[in-house]
Amino acid sequence: MHWLYLGIAVFFEIAFALGANAADGFTKLWPSVFTLVMAAGGIFFLSRALLTLDVGVGYAIWTGLGSVGIVLLGALIFKEKLDWRKLIGFGLVICGIIDLQLTGA
Fold it and tell me: CB within 8 A of 29, min separation 6: which ones?
């Protein structure tokens, strides 16, 4: 169940960051409300996952997968630049997550 909670937390983390961009410095009401709700949801589900996972592992996976999702969706939704250096960075993050899995985390 902890992996499901962590996956949901990653979803909320990505939605939070995209909402923060849309909130325009918290000057727009509904995007700001959305951002705060997504942040709270992400922290809630992360805390549920951390009941079983080591905090370092859970947090690393949460932020790593969240970062990859945010950059990919930022490129798709906001037309942000996606170059080979970012792709290498994604690969390194994913390798790190796989390594955490293989070490029994």
Answer: none
